[in-house]
Fold:
Amino acid sequence: RNLCSIKDSAPIQSAQVIHGKIYIMSQRLCTIGIHGLTSIGQQFAAHHASSKTRVCISDEDPSFPDLVIGEYRNQTELDERDQHDVPLAERASRSMIGASGWKELVQRVEHPRKIFVFGTYGDDEKFRE
Structure:
């Protein structure tokens, strides 16, 4: 996932490729974790990330968080295009990061940990339509 590290300013940042785009990611720990990306889990994550709360997401399908993050970033980057004075890593579009599973999710959430568990997107009736 992490392609390189760049020393821009504290904290150290890294780049991550999602759907062919390179994103700068801060290595700061997340405030909350969300496992299970049902439609409710996705809305919960987007709500908190849009207020610049750092959110780490995961799902039983390790490829699905990247899809959710890509869609979230596509939507929020349009609103941020005039925010040249805000560092990239501090924008709402960069407040949601993915984890490949439980172990990585737990490691990316600060103490005391706040982790919310929802069903997986495969169990969500909305995705069967």
